[in-house]
Amino acid sequence: MDNNEKLKQVFCQALGIEADQVTDSLTYNTIEEWDSTAHMILVAELEDTFDVMLDTDDIIDMSTVGKAKEILAKYEVQF
Predict the structure, then answer these.
(1) How many CA atoms are closer than 13 Å to the CA of 52, on its beta-carbon side?
(2) Average pLDDT over residues 42-57
(3) Is 68 in contact with 59 (CB distance < 8 Å)?
(4) How deeply is 52 buried, as exposed, middle or buried, from its count of CB atoms within 10 A (0-12, 13-18, 19+)?
(5) Residue 66's pLDDT is what?
(6) What's residue 3's pLDDT?
(7) Rounded to the nearest 5°, which phi and psi values hold at 4?
(8) CATH numbers and ranges of domains, the chain
(9) What confidence score (pLDDT) does residue 65 get?
(10) Cα(44)–Cα(6) distance, rounded to whole angstroms?
(11) Exposure check for the chain: N or C terminus, fewer CB within 10 A?
(12) DSSP code of residue 21
């Protein structure tokens, strides 16, 4: 499974949404499922899946799926 698929799977699992909802433009707080609690679950899942430890600024800045890719790229995760 490539990293794009892993990322999509993490978003689906953490937010409890369908895969077709996971697009680069999906934005925090624009769907009911992606609230502050789900955001922290998402962060934990991303850290586990990609074996990284996100810093506080990255967690706060992660406002879209596309931004999550940019942030993970800083930790040498390739998309």
Answers:
(1) 20
(2) 98
(3) no
(4) middle
(5) 98
(6) 98
(7) -65, -45
(8) 3-74 (1.10.1200.10)
(9) 98
(10) 14
(11) N
(12) G
Q: Do the beta carbons of residue 61 and residue 42 sit within 8 Å?
A: no
Spatial separation of the C-alpha atoms in residues 69 and 52, rounded to whole Å: 13
What is the pTM for the complete model shown?
0.95
Report whether 42 contacts 11 (CB < 8 A). Answer: yes
Structure tokens at 62: 């992660």
Would you state the structure tokens that stand for residue 46, as one six-digit string?
């991303």
The structure tokens listed for 49 are 């899946």
User: Can you tell me the distance from the alpha carbon of 31 to that of 47, in angstroms, rounded to the nearest whole number?
Assistant: 22
Reading the block at residue 78, the tokens are 């390739």
- Segment 25-39 shows an average pLDDT of 97
